[in-house]
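Trying the structure run again after the queue cleared.
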Amino acid sequence: MKIVGFAVDVSRSRDERIVQSQRVRRSLIQATLDLIQAGDAEPTSGAIATIAGLSSRTLFQHFIRLSDLYAAAFELAVSRAFGPDRQVDSAAPLASRIALLVSDRAQLFEEWLPVWHFAERVRRAAPAVGAGLAHLRGILRERIAAWFAVELEALDPDSRDHALDSLDRTFGLDSWMNMRERQRLSPMHASRAWRFTAEAIVQQALTGPGPSPAAA
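Done. Tokens:
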């Protein structure tokens, strides 16, 4: 996965200095992402500058701290990889939605693994990356809530919260990481195992105890 595209469009700017500055910044951010995707979980300023065809001095003229460049690279990676989610067909059978969600997230999370390793590695040295990681987890949780909104709405508030917690853990990045990194399953076998496990957990989470006496 080569992440391309940048949020700032300076193509119509008449100030050549601004245009050049943004080109350099884009080169540095892309070089950082290229190194991350190649497996470098903590790219050095020297490596980034070399890949970008620039000097380390130029790098620090545009990014005062390396952590600022890390944050910019992570932000771009999130914006490109986690764009608008697939539209949910709430009328589709639950089993079909589970299968589709597993398929979508397996592909997405597999491509995201190198960036995930990077974020986990540098989040303490680059607080903005850590904050971005927490925000991303929140986005993924919100999307799970939308994906199973029909079933969740049928539960009482306490059961709904517990069910959403269970679904969030089931379909989260950590779940995919566990199968790929700890259990060392291939992407294909991890996807199959994920679907089988998810079906059991989702059915249990969404068809658990009914409304509590207080809510009845």
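Residues 1-8, 210-216 have pLDDT under 50 and may be disordered. Worth checking whether this holds up in the mutant runs.
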